Amino acid sequence: MVTMSLGFCGMRTGFARWIAVAVVSLAPIPAAAQAAALPRAPDGKPDLQGIWQVFNTAAWDIQDHHARLGVPAGQGIVEGNEIPYQAWASAKKQENVDNRLTADPEVKGYLPGVPRIMYMPFPFQIFQTPRHVTMAFEYAHAVRIIYTNGSPHPAGPLNFWLGDSRGRWEGDTLVVDVVHFTDQTWFDRAGNFHGDRLHLIERYTLIGPDHMNYEVTIEDPMVFTRPWKMNMLLYRRKEPNLRLLEFEPAFLVEEDQRQREQGKK
């Protein structure tokens, strides 16, 4: 009996030690240690370079949505799941929904705009220098240049598919101010839209070597009643020999139209 009691006590002691080790291992890592562990560029800024991609369904609908033919179900990326449209804009959004199969600028082969291009289901690659951050997208071979050299936006009004981007570092977060948009892009295939007064504040924050938080604040006084935000994770792609491939929507749209016309003959 004494032997059994000692053995049981030993088991309890060992289990207690295991619990103690587990608790210590699960304790939060101090922010300073996390920051020190981030990959760094030669200038000391977080190194964002690499190939990234979202794994969500925001390109179809930025709000919560159920599955339908050709659209996977998904959780929204809009904070509060509410977009504060003005009354007229809410009606316009519904009109877009009703005509989305032909009215969505993306299905016409146009560039999807910002922020939509950030969460299209295609990878993109980041190149980084002290003076600019460049994003090369597989989708339509689009290129964004975010100037981080302190230069201002050019005088407007101007209408660019991807806007004009000027960035600065706030600690370890890249903050990007984007203006000068066209009104010919949507936020998703669900008809969510904006006007040419769109103004974005993007925040890119590495939260580990292979994960980056992307937050964007949206303003457009002609369409929305107040600013609103979207949040999502970007994931670093790490497959061997990974590279950007080709997806040219304008060419594919033209090819599809040509084949349809040939089929009618």
Detail the topology: elements first, then pairings.
Layout (H helix, E strand, L loop, with lengths): L1 H25 L4 H7 L12 E4 L33 H12 L1 H4 L20 E5 L3 E6 L5 E5 L16 E7 L2 E7 L19 E10 L2 E9 L8 E9 L12 H16 L1
Parallel strand pairs: 4-5
Antiparallel strand pairs: 1-2, 1-9, 2-3, 3-4, 5-6, 6-7, 7-8, 8-9
In short:
By secondary structure, this protein is α+β, with helices and mostly antiparallel strands. It contains 5 helices and 9 strands; from the N terminus they run ααβααββββββββα. The chain has 2 domains: 36 residues; 210 residues, no CATH class.
Describe the structure.
The protein folds into two domains: 2-37; 50-259, no CATH class. The chain has helices spanning 2-26, 31-37, 87-98, 100-103, 249-264; strands at 50-53, 124-128, 132-137, 143-147, 164-170, 173-179, 199-208, 211-219, 228-236. It has 265 residues and is an alpha+beta fold. Strands 1-2-3-4-5-6-7-8-9 form a nine-stranded mixed barrel. Helices cover 24% and strands 23% of the residues.
Note the main attributes of this structure:
9 strands, 9-stranded mixed barrel, 2 domains, 265 residues, globular, 23% strand, alpha+beta, disordered N terminus
Instruction: Count the beta strands.
Output: 9
Query: What is the radius of gyration?
Result: 24 Å
Sheet with most strands: 9 strands, mixed, barrel
State the shape: globular
Tally of distinct domains: 2
Order of helices and strands: HHEHHEEEEEEEEH
Counted by DSSP, the helix tally is 5
| First and last CA, distance | 95 Å
> What is the helical fraction, as a range of percent?
10-25%
Strand order of the largest sheet: 1-2-3-4-5-6-7-8-9
What is the beta-strand fraction?
Answer: 15-25%
Overall pLDDT, averaged? Answer: 89
Quickly give the structural class: alpha+beta
Low-confidence stretches: 1-12, 18-25
